[in-house]
Design brief:
The complex is a heterodimer of chains A (136) and B (134). Chain A is built from 2 helices and 4 strands. With 136 residues, chain A is of the alpha+beta class. In chain A, α1 packs antiparallel against α2. Chain B has 134 residues and is mostly helical. Chain B has one domain. In chain B, α1 packs across α2 and α1 runs antiparallel to α3. Chain B is elongated and about 65 Å long. Classes of the chains: A alpha+beta (136), B mainly alpha (134).
């Protein structure tokens, strides 16, 4: 029954999108964390999506999986603040390389994609309900 | 009776293909943010023609040595998938156009509903014919 696969596909996409939203939340929350667990400023994290075939699905049925979480390689934001205890010998403090505007657009995009997948699921559900009503 | 069975058979094939197409479109929407994913779809008309001529079933059809044997094979004929033409290219190599996919999905769901209703009507007709007594 290929309509059941739609639920697998859409739910895998929703999981992936919520992981992306998690990364955005982490980035925004730590936009000013100048010291993270490894003692260096926090680095922005981005998720990488990958298409994977779903179990029992046909050739066209591809779900989504988060392949890896990568750290943004761009240099930290240097702010001149000699009073800060984390300042280097020149008086600069390394702030996280989180781009707040980028994260906000990322958040909106993730939420819209999530919404689309919910709608796909609903459509599939309606189709199945219609099938169950055959002959009534 | 024969004609009802024959038309139900073609409706069943069509409904199976619609469900299959819904799955393909769902995969496209699910992968709207996956880098290098290419949107896919199949042409319903040719897939239907292929399924009706029995070629879509591939090697999985049961061989019959007598015409009284059951036909076997599934209604879910797999359709040949093609890649969708790109309207606007994205930097990450993804070719999913959300507007196109959403519109196709709405159309596909509507067609599915029509088919389900047609099947229901056929069965209703059959029921009416059976229940008319004296």
């Amino acid at each position: 029954m290929s309509l059941f696969n739609v639920f697998h596909i859409s739910s895998s996409a929703m999981t992936a999108q919520s992981m992306r939203l998690n990364a955005v939340a982490s980035n925004l929350a730590n936009a000013d964390s100048i010291v993270s667990s490894d003692g260096r400023p926090y680095r922005a994290k981005q998720v990488v999506f990958e298409a994977v075939p779903v179990a029992g699905g046909s050739d066209g049925a591809r779900g989504v999986r988060v392949r890896q979480v990568v750290e943004d390689a761009s240099p930290p934001r240097m702010v001149y603040d000699p009073k800060n205890p984390a300042a280097d010998e020149k008086g600069y403090v390394a702030f996280p390389n989180v781009n707040v505007v980028e994260e906000m657009t990322n958040m909106i995009s993730a939420s819209r994609s999530y919404q689309s997948n919910v709608e796909v699921m609903n459509t599939a559900k309606n189709m199945m309900m219609r099938t169950l009503q055959i002959g009534q | 009776m024969q004609s009802i069975a024959a038309s139900l058979d073609s409706l069943r094939t069509a409904i199976g293909l619609r469900a299959e197409r819904h799955q393909v479109l769902a995969a496209n929407i699910a992968n709207a943010d996956t880098p290098n994913y290419k949107a896919r779809d199949f042409d319903f008309r040719s897939a239907m023609a292929q399924a009706m001529s029995g070629r879509g079933l591939g090697d999985l059809t049961l061989s019959r040595s007598s015409d009284r044997h059951l036909e076997g094979g599934s209604a879910a004929a797999s359709a040949p998938l093609a890649y969708r033409k790109e309207t606007q290219s994205a930097v990450d190599g993804n070719t999913v156009d959300m507007d196109v996919e959403r519109a196709q999905m709405a159309e596909n769901a509507l067609q599915y509903d029509i088919l389900a209703r047609l099947v229901g009507d056929r069965l209703q007709g059959l029921k009416a014919a059976l229940s008319t007594q004296s």
